[in-house]
Amino acid sequence: MVKRLLIANRGEIACRIIRTARRMGVETIAVFSDADAGALHVRMADGAVHIGPSPASESYLDGAKIIAAAKESGADAIHPGFGFLSENAQFAQAVMDAGLTWVGPDPASIEAMGLKDAAKRLMAEAGVPITPGYMGEDQSLDRLIPAADEIGYPVLIKAVAGGGGKGMRRVERKEDFSAALESCRREAKAAFGDDRVLIEKYITRPRHIEVQVFGDRHGNVVHLFERDCSVQRRHQKVIEEAPAPGMDEVTREAICAAAVKAAQAVNYVGAGTIEFIADATEGLKPDRVWFMEMNTRLQVEHPVTEQITGVDLVEWQLRIAAGEHLPKSQEDLRFSGWSVEARLYAEDPARDFMPSTGRLEIFDLPGGVRVETGVERGDAITSFYDPMIAKLIATCETREQAVDRLRAACEAVAIYPVKTNAAFLARVLGNAEFRAGGVDTGFIERHGEALTRSGEPSAQVLELAAQSFLPEGQGPWQRLVGFRMNAEQRREVRMRFGDSLVLAAPPSSDPASPAHLLPPGEKGPLGPAFVHGPQAPNSRLPPLPFSPGGRRWPRSGRMRGAPRTQAPRLIRKSPHQALIAYGGEVFAFTPDRTEASHGAAAGDGAIAAPIPGKISAIAVQNGQEVSKGDTLLILEAMKMEYTLSAPFNGVVEEVTAAVGDQVTEGAVLVRIGEEGR
Ligand code: ADP
Asked: What is the pLDDT of residue 506?
């Protein structure tokens, strides 16, 4: 057995491997770049070696440095995880040449499956059904155009060296073929250094179904059933599940047998995945499933297979690498229940899924589901690596239960100020078409807006925020109920949400004046103060009615006993800010003190980053007096500088940022206390 394992990866996969290794009594060595010096995988491992600067090309992708780190730390084996060098045959060979155990397939198997065209040819020879198409050596236009005609439009042009959804073009009509080919080749050349392509029949309403396989060094290959990964965005998986909905025994038998045949054809050793594409226009049928490609590594979505089979796939990898036989025969392998995984990303669905970086000031992941993550509260999401924060995996007896549980888990995610796709995931899981089972890869595109729209704060959220700004001891609304209203005496809580003004008035006394958001500018002096530089896009929100008053809100903000998905939660409360988590999103409110500040163009003294960026200078210190308009700090973003200045005369109460920090939008950088308050 392996004694000391170096993990040539980072984040959640490194942590995942460490857990199993530890259980098996295998020592672990982490590697890390500058950006990951304090990362969770480094803290978890028994030892760690620094391998270079933050960019992956100078650290995690530098095979020589990793092998040197293994030697230096006395490791006897290397696990590549997934991504990075996991499917690099040269690296696998170099590891073996250095006298180390490679936890993965033979370099020859990686190579055989590395190019899509060669892999397809090989599979066809082995009798595995492949997507109809052209995969010849002749790459001339004179050959490709007739080939596309013969296949019949629509067709898909794919870079033979492609991966990660890159280098693919769908072509609807013959007229568009040449242009699409050109652009596909350009992308392939840039991304993979190889501009050769293959052409496939474009399958309409395709489902992505893949089979987990495992081989040992004694000629045995088994499958561990299928996964469905059809919910994709731009050809990237978002939700994965096992088994596949609508899969009948006959079709399962057929594709699992084809997968085993495919693995045998390349003498496969270790964990691998055979990806198929299914034409599911009339449900899953054994003769409508075709080989797409093989991934010669562990997959991101491997946990759903583990959950339904009870097999620890990383343990199997280590055993096989040590030369052991497969721990189970095909007859011994069974599955039960249903498991669904959602990939939680640091990105903003409302802004075309732009990655969101920064420190995880609030990082509240739900219970009741398996969580795979490489970060903890206080850690940073940087722009150097994949923005995946965590995988949430729910396993229940039925699909419906697992989907419900995962949806509730996504809704309970509270992360701030980094933006996440949690609410988006929850909407996918709540979608009727998804719940009916058997969605195809066009699902997200088809539902677009309905899934990606960023949630507006509901009346409940507004109410909770407003209540949090009332002085302690004042019951939320009870005290206001029966309050005699007139224009002058009226009590209302004034808050800001983004650049909108929220006026929250007591409910029962004045039904004609509900809590609502005012768009910026509508109230004259209340226009957004204290941010110089481009403003965030206006959120023009419709008036929202208050829900009936008299509700009791627990002071802790936690809805103990109530289903977490049902009620908004106050997750941070200070005089400067209220953060409310609801439905997977975190809504940030600041009190608006315009009137209290005697006409000055003031707002709350919490100076937040208007956009994600890097702090390039800080002009103030704690305790320093500042005058309105004084420069506080400079934020660098998208090659521009933004000066953040004091909104009013006051004292610097807190500087929470440091020069060089990468900050997310909305992160509070400085707090100013107002003079005389
Ligand atoms: P990559 O290696 O970049 O991941 P794949 O060949 O695995 O590329 O394909 C990625 C995704 O593209 C699939 O999961 C599927 O959604 C879509 N796709 C691939 N081939 C076809 C096809 N012939 N017809 C329709 N969609 C396809």
From this structure: 42
Domain limits, CATH 3.40.50.20, in the chain = 4-103
Write out the CATH class of domain 106-131+206-336: alpha beta
Comparing 12-26, 512-526, 598-612, the range with the smallest average pLDDT is 512-526
CA of 521 relative to ligand 1 center, distance in Å: 48
Atom 11 of ligand 1, residue of closest alpha carbon: 235
Q: Which atom of ligand 1 is nearest to the CA of 131?
A: 23
Q: Is the pLDDT of residue 208 over 60?
A: yes
Ligand 1 centre from 256 Cα, in Å? 19
Catalytic residue among 196, 297, 343, 359: 297
Q: Which of 188-192, 485-489, 568-572, 621-625 is the least confident region?
A: 485-489
Homologous superfamily (CATH) of 133-201 is ATP-grasp fold, A domain (3.30.1490.20)
- Within 6 Å (CB) of ligand 1, which residues are found? 131, 156, 162-166, 200-203, 206, 208, 232, 235, 275, 277, 292-293, 441
| CA 205 to ligand 1 center in whole angstroms | 12
Residue 312 Cα, ligand 1 centroid: separation in angstroms? 28
**How far does residue 207's CA lie from ligand 1's centre (Å)?**
10
Query: CATH 3.30.470.20 spans which residues of the chain?
Result: 106-131+206-336
In ligand 1, the atom with minimum distance to the C-alpha of 292 is 6
297 annotated active-site: yes
Residues 266/112, Cβ–Cβ less than 8 Å: yes
**Which atom of ligand 1 has the smallest separation from the CA of 203?**
24
Residue 235 CB coordination number (10 Å): 12
Q: Which residue has the tokens 């609030």?
A: 362
Question: Going by CA atoms, what residue is nearest to atom 1 of ligand 1?
Answer: 163
Q: Looking at the chain, which residues constitute the CATH 2.40.50.100 domain(s)?
A: 595-674
H-run or E-run covering 100: none
Q: What's the pLDDT tens digit per position in 267-295?
A: 999 999 999 999 999 999 999 999 999 99
Mutate to test the pocket of ligand 1, among 87, 115, 123, 168 (most ligand atoms within 8 A of CB): 168
Q: Evaluate whether 608 touches 536 at the Cβ level (below 8 Å).
A: no
Measured by CA distance, the residue closest to atom 14 of ligand 1 is 208
* DSSP-assigned letter for residue 554: P
What pLDDT score does 565 carry?
53
| Per-residue pLDDT tens digits for 595-630 | 443 333 335 788 888 777 889 889 999 889 998 888
Domain 595-674 has CATH 2.40.50.100: yes
Closest of 490, 465, 484, 472 to residue 595, by C-alpha: 490
Range 4-103: architecture per CATH = 3-Layer(aba) Sandwich (3.40)
As a whole number, the mean pLDDT across the chain is 85
Q: What is the DSSP string of 309-340?
A: H---HHHHHHHHHTTPPPSS-GGG----SEEE
Q: What is the average per-residue pLDDT within 313-341?
A: 98
Question: What value does the mean pLDDT take over residues 168-181?
Answer: 96
Angle CA 449–371–32, to nearest 5: 100
> Which residues belong to CATH 3.30.1490.20 in the chain?
133-201
Q: What CA–CA distance (Å, rounded) separates 337 from 274?
A: 22
- The tens digit of pLDDT for each residue in 553-570 reads 222 223 233 334 568 999
